[in-house]
Amino acid sequence: MSKILVTGGKRLVGEVNIVGAKNAALGILPATLLCKGECVLENVPDISDMRHYETMLRKLGANVTKSADGTMTVDTKDVTPDAISEIEEESRMMRASYYMIGTLLGLFKDVRLPLPGGCDIGARPIDQHIKGFKALGATVDLKEGYIHAYADKLVGSRVYFDVVSVGATINVMLGAVLAEGTTTLENVAKEPHVVDVANFLNKAGAKIVGAGTDVIKITGVKRLNPVSYCVVADQITTGTYMVAAAATNGDVTIRNIIPEHLDSISAKLREMGAEVIEDYDSLRVIGHTPLLPTKLKTLPYPGFPTDLQQPMGVLMCVAKGQSAITETIFENRFKYVDELVKMGASVIVAGNTAVFNGVDKLTGCPIRATDLRAGAAMIIAALMAEGTSEITGVEFIDRGYDNIVNDLKNLGADIERIDS
Ligand code: EPZ
Known about the structure:
Layout: E1 3-7, E2 13-17, H1 22-31, E3 38-42, H2 48-59, E4 63-66, E5 72-75, H3 88-93, H4 99-108, E6 110-114, H5 127-135, E7 139-143, E8 146-150, E9 158-160, H6 166-176, E10 182-186, H7 192-203, E11 207-209, E12 215-219, E13 228-230, H8 235-247, E14 251-255, H9 263-271, E15 275-278, E16 282-286, E17 295-297, H10 309-317, E18 322-326, H11 336-342, E19 346-350, E20 353-357, E21 366-368, H12 372-384, E22 388-392, H13 394-398, H14 404-410, E23 414-418
Parallel strand pairs: 2-14, 3-13, 9-10, 17-18, 21-22
Antiparallel strand pairs: 1-22, 1-23, 3-5, 4-5, 6-8, 7-8, 10-12, 11-12, 14-16, 15-16, 18-20, 19-20
Helix pairs in contact: 1-2, 1-7, 4-6, 5-6, 8-10, 8-12, 10-12
Bound molecules: ligand EPZ.
The site of ligand EPZ has 27 residues, from α1, α5, α6 and α12.
């Protein structure tokens, strides 16, 4: 059982580079299966969800190699549908395994896999994914915890998503790129990682227009060609480090990013009294005390991302006054509050809203990551707290943060990972 020990009170100062986005790479890696031949992916994050995907691709017959600099080569010439049943174990381990359904439906027209796993932050149905596959002409059976999608052929269609869904947008795009005719997806997700998957597919020869807007149009093509592609910087890791800098009254420059992807976080941090200075491909965050209270509501991009509400909640614990978070995306994403209360925070959760009454300080103690982004929030709370905290549930953090302990240590944090 690994744990992370943090002794708070140290300002984060210096520079940090951001690696490729988890939620883009988890869509692009399966998408390489649609390209017959050898793709080269640069700036790939080294996280456990990606390692599960590498295992699945190898079991399907792909030759996957990785270099120390985050470059991954995927040769798919020997991929066949014969081993689909062998990737069930990995499919259960994460939410993003659902992209194997759209990809393998598009490639082989028949796929049966367990329903996906993932962080326990809500019901997380996949009805919109299924709506899209059926619109393309697939039959989709759900039974005994499995999804079985199959079709003689896939034909372009029009799909209106009832809810804005990152996963459904990417998944139906993966199923539609090789379909016959044109597919129109409406009320789609516009997150930077959705755009990045579309950019990868277009570079490989797909015909996708509108990614990043409310409507995506896909004209089916016969085949995709293997390409080299550099994964976009991780918006959520960047936001996590921005909040950590503000939480420690620090001065941190975050490089190799697209600042516009962080507009909502920059705006909220400025409201709380931090300085955020933008450059072409970097952001500098300078913390100031006292932190001021604010209110935020999570929304699909370009709204405030749900994946960063938990780190922001930590800041609100010590802001001078009353702050509030309304979580509109997931029904169960305030479990981390219980851990903050152990540290001395004063927070009341009522339905999908949490109200934070600022206290003078948090006090370090044993705390637990209850999901991936809650884990990042625990680290930020420990950085800010007086005394030492011991964080467990590190396996959640490993799912999405490539190098968070070393990155923070290099910025001056008193942080240590202990693997037993
Ligand atoms: C993706 O999850 C991300 N995961 C999540 O990041 C992120 O929090 C979420 O998008 C929102 O941005 C990956 O990309 C692997 P959704 P996903 O479909 O696709 C409802 C992290 O920490 N919905 O956009 O599961 C759903 O219940 C993780 O990196 C349906 O009702 O999210 C939710 O309320 C956590 N039916 C809302 O839509 C569906 O078919 C948004 O979910 C699909 C979703």
